């Protein structure tokens, strides 16, 4: 995930300082398995793979750091991985 972000940041130049900050911040946290920007670029969101026991703390610490750095309130949308697509019977 980090390599994907770096490609979007440097090869395609579609990231921004706010997203780069969040991805770099996640690198310092051993509970984070990976992070990258997602969405339309030049804004948007980061997608972070985090150990389930560390999600709330990661959000709290990230929100504080992000607000301190940019003066913007971070909004987090915790999600869980599902079983994926499957055939439906109609």
Shape: globular
Task: Compute the average pLDDT.
Answer: 94
Poorly predicted parts: none
Task: Characterize the largest beta sheet: strand count, sense, and whether it forms a barrel.
Answer: 2 strands, antiparallel
For the largest sheet, list the strands in their spatial order: 1-2
Cα Rg: 15 Å
Structural class: alpha+beta
Summarize the structure in words:
By secondary structure, the protein is of the alpha+beta class. Helices cover 41% and strands 14% of the residues. It is built from three helices and two strands. It has helices spanning 2-11, 17-27, 55-70, and strands at 32-38, 45-50. The chain has a two-stranded antiparallel sheet. Strand 1 (32-38) and strand 2 form a beta hairpin.
Sequence-ordered SSE layout with sheet pairings:
Layout: H1 2-11, H2 17-27, E1 32-38, E2 45-50, H3 55-70
Antiparallel strand pairs: 1-2
Quick summary:
The protein is of the alpha+beta class and 90 residues long.
Keywords:
3 helices, globular, 41% helix, two-stranded antiparallel ribbon, 90 residues, alpha+beta
């Amino acid at each position: 995930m980090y390599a994907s972000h770096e490609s979007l940041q440097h090869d395609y130049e579609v990231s921004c300082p706010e997203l780069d900050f969040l991805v770099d911040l996640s690198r310092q946290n051993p509970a984070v398995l990976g992070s990258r920007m997602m969405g339309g670029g030049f804004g948007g969101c980061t997608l972070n793979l985090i150990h389930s026991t560390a999600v709330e703390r990661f959000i709290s610490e990230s929100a504080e750091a992000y607000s301190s750095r940019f003066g913007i309130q971070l909004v987090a949308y915790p999600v869980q991985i599902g079983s994926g697509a499957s055939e439906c019977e109609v």
